Amino acid sequence: MNNLELINQLVEWRHYLHQNPESAFQEENTAKFVAEKLIVMGYEVETGIGKTGVVASLKVGDGTGVIGLRADMDAINMTEKGEIPYASKNCGKMHACGHDGHTATLLGAAKLLSERKNFNGTVRLIFQPAEEPGKGAQAMIDDGFFEKFTVDEIYGLHNMPFLPEGTIHTRPLGILASEDNFVIKIKGKGSHASSPHVGIDPLVTAAQIIVSLQTIVSRNVNPLNQAVISCTELHTDGVHNAIPSNVEISGDTRSFSTEVQELIETRMRSISEGICQMNGAECEFEYTHEFAPTINWEKCVDVVVKVAKNVVGEDKVNTNCEPWMASEDFGNFLKYVPGCFLFLGSGKSTEVSKNIPLHNSQYDYNDDVLLTGAEFFAELIKVRLP
Questions:
Q1: 178-291, CATH topology level
Q2: Annotated binding-site residue? 99
Q3: pLDDT band for position 352 (50/70/90)?
Q4: 74 an active-site residue?
Q5: Which of 32, 139, 183, 198 has its CA 20 to 30 Å from the CA of residue 218?
Q6: Any idea which fold 3-175+293-384 has?
Q7: Nearest to residue 107, comparing CAs of 180, 30, 194, 50?
């Protein structure tokens, strides 16, 4: 298959996936579509890993090395508003993060590897469910992924519309942040708005907590470390003329290390409980770890840089890009084996503001970078399994 034929095939696959999005752990049709294509290519395929995950393996020669390549398959529960001929047919679901492109890209790499067979060892293609809620990678791991499928190293990518088209960006160590969620429930004593002195105002208490939480990043976290604390929701049971009895604050935090995560959780709890006690209110503090940080292994970053330069040229490779405070559950795989995550630039316009961002109801993957991603993955296997 020549490049033009492969590009047309990738676009056809991508548009089909875009038209038929499935959200977390519901990717049954997507998994079936992927598995059918891989079987035709000659891969050994196992389905149902982590509920709807697919793992495909191809061994060439007598090499003992095993390299994993991962793509995520799930869509977002969002209504598509873009006007494209292959818009989502599933109401309230769309590929607003480009996982349709990631899946098509890895299928393209699978096609190149099965035709060229220019490596010596085993490639494992990992089509993961449920990345959006941060549960899919761990679900595959809990289902015995690493026991069933040996992997020496693992690699993954994400498209980035705010980076120039066809560029590749990575960095050593932290590239994507953790995500922790919190809920702070404050119980006061409701009263008439005209008589605050007979109640315990949980809304004023909440306001004090929200402002005080901002001091954690500015005064407790080392300025050389990145961290974000965002209060994103505030709910009360009050009305315009009644001071509420209950207030609930929720939000999330981002960081790149377990030490900072622990510091944030400890300080948030102390501040919330302390201010509530000071005001005579009761406090219930909940804190959950949703996404692990994605921490690249330095030796694998070197591999990605070498391969990227082979594919797109040295001038299109950023070897020490800025970390992104968003989260990706690929970090769970990196707790077990060495690996590296990278960004594939997909911005059509040189003016960043003109590129539709991820998680936007009009977002659409840039088909022009499908072959670039596929060639990158294929070249990586050639380099790592000589």
A1: Alpha-Beta Plaits (3.30.70)
A2: yes
A3: confident
A4: yes
A5: 183
A6: Aminopeptidase (3.40.630)
A7: 30
